[in-house]
Design brief:
The complex is a heterodimer.
Chain A (H helix, E strand, L loop, with lengths): L11 H33 L1 H22 L2 H20 L1 H38 L2 H13 L3 H8 L3 E10 L5 E6 L8 H20 L8 E3 L3 E7 L3 E9 L4 H16 L1 H5 L12 H5 L4 E2 L2 H43 L3 E8 L4 E7 L6 H7 L7 E7 L5 H18 L2 E2 L9 H23 L2 E9 L7 H21 L7 E5 L12 H7 L1 E10 L1
Parallel strand pairs in A: 8-9, 11-12
Antiparallel strand pairs in A: 1-2, 1-5, 1-6, 3-4, 4-5, 7-8, 10-13, 11-13
Helix pairs in contact in A: 3-4, 5-6, 13-14
Chain B lengths: L1 E9 L5 H8 L7 H5 L2 E10 L2 E10 L18 E7 L4 H17 L4 E6 L11 H10 L3 E3 L8 H15 L10
Parallel strand pairs in B: 1-3, 1-4, 4-5, 5-6
Antiparallel strand pairs in B: 2-3
């Protein structure tokens, strides 16, 4: 109507007609015109429209929400963008709002992490020693799957019997599966009771509703509950479930929450909506039983055998060490032996030190302690001990040697003592006295064998007689000098055992003689 | 099949457990009531052509020492407030429990059960009192756990009320 041609006013009649038309229009449509103008103003004026929309916006949104999820979907990118902008501009606002709940969330997460870490450590400790775990590791390496996955697959120590999907608030069973041959007829009651017990525990013991019941354990049966925001996934398990199994429950519950978000939010008692969740529950029905008992008994047997072997080795080593220590102690106590160092390895023993030749033989001593002589390496330097026994022993030995070196010589074909030989007998008697004293101090007795000899000339029969006469002559002479006759025995050697073989004058003379051997008895 | 959680509330000794026992045979021992504070039974029934499974949470009775744990009410679709007709204090107590239940779970269907109708001549709660309550908007059912009077009705009525109040959503259209 406002599209009047902008030409020059050529015709006054036209103008007049136009006025009349306007008049007529005002007459016919007066009120509506005013209203129309007001309406146009409302539509054109942004301010007014904004004010009007603001009055009905809340109701409109509420209505739209009731009708479906369209509005949420359209708002979603805007809200996300707005949130992003808000966080970029002023992170403080979000931080302040989150602060009161973040502590609780973090605490829970940390506690969960710790719990599963402890479980994993226990599990790994338990498994790391087994042959089976090595096999699994190998299989994991070969197949490129994780060790945990293989362990879960191959672990035969547990069996998930039943899995419940439970609505969190009502305790209603949304879905229920059981392994073949397992299961109960009253799943609804069990699930409600479980929810009730969960409530009971949080009310009675913690006073906080946020505390979720995670595990109920009896001797041979475990109930695991994974708490989702809307629904719980609970499983009854026989045996020892591996920690990896928990991840399966968590994963499946998360998937259920994602796929059935709408149904969970609007649940009004009809569980049919959750029939599609059945495969997720069936994914949790893992494990087998039967072999574990056998396996564990085999392990126990192996462990017992190992303990026995370790004990036996321990006992053997202990006895070996104790024998060795006793032997060393004995050596160190022994006069005439000084131990300056020792060593043992798996096979041999070795001792370093000093030994008086008069001291007992360490090899013989070793036999007393069941130590094989061929395992013993002795590096003992000879020395003279100043121990009194050894001093006297040496004195005795010297006296004995001296005595046995003495020879009383006789003229050819005679058993008469020449005067200078009688003098020698005086010396011999003195030596004998000293030797006897020393022997006494050492607690020994001595006895003299007095050997008479003849030279190799002449007949043996005559020589035999001659040698006996010579020996008896010396016995007689010594008896005269006060030597007890019962400590002497005359022995006739004839010419059979000459002191020197040969026929020079000197050699023959040496063989016409009497010599002595000192026999020692006693200690 | 629609599952509905129903709670039995009321003072100690008014006959909650007997009412449930009259109605249903459960699997849990009554010991649960004293230990955990709740015993759960179930009952299937038909409302119109809709199958309904009622999960009956029988909560331990309230006395001077212990109050009903309202956390057990969480997720309930409705509840019964049970009192003993021969004992007027139990009605007061039911009213106070009702108040707490309202705070805990909001305005969900509930029904006042006046039990022990078999002892009618000993009743302390009078007919005018009950009429007054009906006028206030209470739904009331008089029962006897002993004879079974009114027991079926109380459960059927509440179940019907529940379905009326919360019709199936479109998504759950078929049953």
């Amino acid at each position: 109507m406002g599209a009047t041609p902008a030409g020059p006013k050529l015709d006054p009649e036209y103008d007049q007609g136009r006025d009349e038309l306007s008049e007529l229009r005002a007459l016919l449509l007066g009120q509506q015109m005013i209203e129309l103008q007001a309406l146009r103003k409302r539509l054109d004026d942004g301010e007014i429209r904004a004010e009007e929309v603001s009055r009905i916006l809340a109701r409109a949104v509420a209505l739209a929400t009731q009708q479906g999820q369209g509005l949420q979907r359209s708002f979603y990118p805007i809200v996300e963008q707005a949130l992003k902008i808000s966080i970029t501009r002023n992170p403080g606002i979000l931080a302040t709002s989150l602060a009161p709940i973040i502590g609780e969330t973090v605490r829970k997460a940390v506690a969960n992490a710790f719990r599963s870490m402890t479980e994993s450590i226990n599990f790994i400790l338990e498994r790391s020693l087994s042959w089976e775990s090595l096999k699994w590791r190998f299989e994991a390496m070969r197949s490129g799957r994780s060790f945990g996955e293989i362990a879960l697959l191959r672990s035969l120590r547990y069996k998930v019997q039943q899995v419940f999907l439970i609505q969190r608030d009502t305790g209603a069973v949304l879905q229920y599966v059981a392994a073949p041959g397992e299961g109960i007829s009253e799943a609804e009651l069990a699930s409600s009771m479980l929810t009730a017990i969960g409530d009971f525990v949080s009310d009675a013991f913690t006073g906080k509703h946020s505390q979720d019941l995670g595990v109920i354990q009896t001797d041979d049966f475990t109930l695991w509950v994974h708490h989702g925001p809307q629904a719980l996934l609970a499983g009854t398990i026989l045996g020892n479930p591996p920690p990896e199994l928990k991840n399966v429950f968590v994963r499946e519950n998360e998937l259920i929450h994602r796929e059935f978000a709408g149904a969970l939010a609007t649940f009004n008692g009809d569980a049919h909506m959750f029939d599609g969740a059945r495969p997720h529950l069936q994914n949790c029905l893992l494990g087998q039983t039967g072999r574990p008992r056998k396996q564990s008994s085999r392990w126990v047997a192996a462990l017992v055998a190992l303990v026995i072997v370790v004990l036996a080795i321990g006992l053997f080593v202990h006895r070996r060490n104790s024998r060795w220590e006793h032997y060393l102690a004995r050596l160190q106590k022994e006069p005439g032996i000084v131990v300056t160092g020792w060593d043992t390895d798996w096979a041999n023993y070795s001792v370093r030190g000093l030994r008086d030749p008069l001291a007992p033989d360490p090899v013989k001593l070793a036999r007393e302690f069941d130590i094989a002589p061929d395992k013993l390496r002795l590096n003992l330097q000879p020395y003279e001990s100043l121990d009194n026994t050894f001093v006297q022993q040496r004195e005795f030995n010297a006296g004995k040697r001296q005595l046995e070196e003495q020879k009383i010589l006789f003229p050819l074909n005679s058993s008469d003592l020449r005067p200078e030989q009688a003098l020698r007998l005086d010396n011999i008697e003195e030596m004998l006295n000293r030797l006897q004293e020393t022997a006494h101090r050492l607690g020994r007795q001595i006895h003299l064998d007095i050997y008479g000899r003849a030279d190799q000339t002449g007949a043996e029969g005559k020589n035999q007689t001659l040698s006996r006469e010579r020996a008896e002559r010396v016995v007689e002479a010594l008896r005269e000098r006060g030597v007890a006759p019962d400590m002497m025995t005359a022995v006739a050697l004839g010419s059979s055992q000459p002191i020197q073989h040969g026929s020079t004058a000197y050699q023959l003379e040496l063989n016409r003689s009497v010599s002595m051997r000192v026999n020692v008895s006693g200690r | 099949m629609i599952q509905k959680k129903i709670c039995m509330l009321g003072s100690f000794g008014v006959g909650k457990t007997s009412l449930v026992a009259r109605y249903v045979k459960g699997i849990f021992n009554a010991k649960y009531l004293t230990t955990v504070g709740v015993k759960i039974d179930k009952k299937e029934l038909k409302v119109g052509d809709q199958d309904v499974l009622l999960l009956l949470w029988d909560l331990a009775g309230e006395d001077s020492r212990s109050q009903v744990q309202t956390s057990y009410l969480r997720g309930a679709a409705g509840y019964f407030l049970v009192c003993d007709g021969t004992w007027s204090e139990t009605l007061l107590s039911a009213k106070s429990i009702h108040k707490r239940a309202l705070e805990a779970v909001g305005d969900i269907p509930c029904m006042l059960i006046v039990n022990k109708s078999d002892l009618w001549n000993k009743w302390q709660i009078t007919a005018p009192e009950l009429e007054q309550l009906v006028a206030e908007g209470w739904k009331i059912q008089v029962t006897s756990a002993k004879t079974g009077d009114g027991v079926e009705e109380m459960f059927t009525k509440l179940a019907t009320e529940l379905l009326r109040k919360a019709p199936l959503s479109e998504a759950a259209g078929e049953s």
